[in-house]
Amino acid sequence: MNPILCVVGTRPNYMKMAPILAAFDAHVPPIPYRLVHTGQHYDAAMEKVFFDALGLPAPYANLAVGPGSHAVQTARIMERLDAVLDEVRPASVLVVGDVNSTVAAALVAAKRNLPVIHVESGLRSGDRTMPEEVNRILTDAVSDLLFTTERGAADNLAREGVAPDRIVFAGNVMIDTLDRHADRFVPARETLARGGCPDPEGWPARGFAVATLHRPSNVDAAEPLERLLVALDGIARELPVVFPAHPRTRGNIARFGLERLIDPARWLLLDPLPYFDMIGLMRDARLVLTDSGGVQEETTVLGVPCLTLRENTERPVTVSAGTNRLIGTRPEAIAGAWRALRDEGALAAGARREARRPELWDGRAAIRIAEALWARRTRFLGAG
Ligand code: UD1
């Protein structure tokens, strides 16, 4: 048997890869693998704290590609990963999600005629201006085995000509991680106190919202970022907003001179939070506002109302079966959606409804992935 080369590069990859590697270790017999980190994310707050908390093994190699344009980042990963593949000689390459590291690794493997395994296949926003959408389409096009998180993904793949026998509906590995660590979530009051909140007991008691923003279309130009911060400030006047900001978003707030919109009496601007702190914060919030994909999924399982500040979502099951509402980025739409939730009592203390779990978001997705790979071991593990 040869190992499966597993590739991570960014913060949302770690929560997806951790349960897969744990399932490979727990499989009888164990499924051999090697982990490679591309180094796309490199700040300790975006990388090391997640590796440690989630129990990911030290990577066999770190390609240390760092920041750069999409082309530079992708090209560097491709070059450096090619060299690692010469050394490791894996039977196949496994990638997760939709970031630049995902597509770069998938392309290198496909060019070497190595089977590509993609976890979180078939999600489509329909918006090709989103870098992740391009990454999803290209990764799926060169993948040999495609694991999906929701039923609709197989229809998207069928439309793109993927044969049904290459698609396996496995469920959501991100939720495996959420379930596995449920007893380690940090209560919001601790995170608020550590972050310098003026009233770390009062905010959770009276209610607070959590916001995350990092989509380039929302934060890379002054106008949309300012518009969103003003809209969020309208909410903050009634429900203080805790805002753990991505390093790029934080940098842009400073660059565009927008700090003046963040009044510390009703906003708490934080650095990116460790996983257990972030999930604990969302669990204890009355409302989450986000443009992240993963947060739409996590709030669904936590049962917390989520307003998604985008025009589309590649994760429609979080709307049809979860707590997510897709409201776009117009200030009137944001204000209207927040008022509607407030007026229907959804934001009151104790108003949380039972979380509804989409099909197969049951904490066992990675086990199904390990089993599916073992059943196909001739191809994906080079086993006789
Ligand atoms: C990437 C993913 C995005 C994912 C997000 C999660 C792509 C195309 N985008 O976006 O899908 O939702 O990760 O966080 O792959 N930076 C730091 N420190 C870091 C990482 C980034 O300061 O550890 C700053 C740098 O200025 C860097 C910029 O953020 O140039 C952009 O980072 P990059 O990895 O290119 O994309 P993200 O915006 O993080």
Describe what you observe in this structure.
The chain is α/β, with parallel strands linked by helices and about 375 residues long. It has two domains: about 5-170 and about 360-380, Rossmann fold (3-Layer(aba) Sandwich), CATH 3.40.50.2000; about 185-345, Glycogen Phosphorylase B (Rossmann fold), CATH 3.40.50. The chain is about 45% helix and about 15% strand. It has 18 helices and 13 strands. The strands form two sheets. Strands 3-2-1-4-5-6-7 form a seven-stranded parallel β-sheet, sandwiched between helices. It has a six-stranded parallel β-sheet with strand order 10-9-8-11-12-13, with helices on both faces. Helix 5 links the parallel strand 5 and strand 6. The protein is globular. It starts with a strand and ends with a helix. The model has no long low-confidence stretch (mean pLDDT about 95). The chain binds uridine-diphosphate-N-acetylglucosamine (UD1).
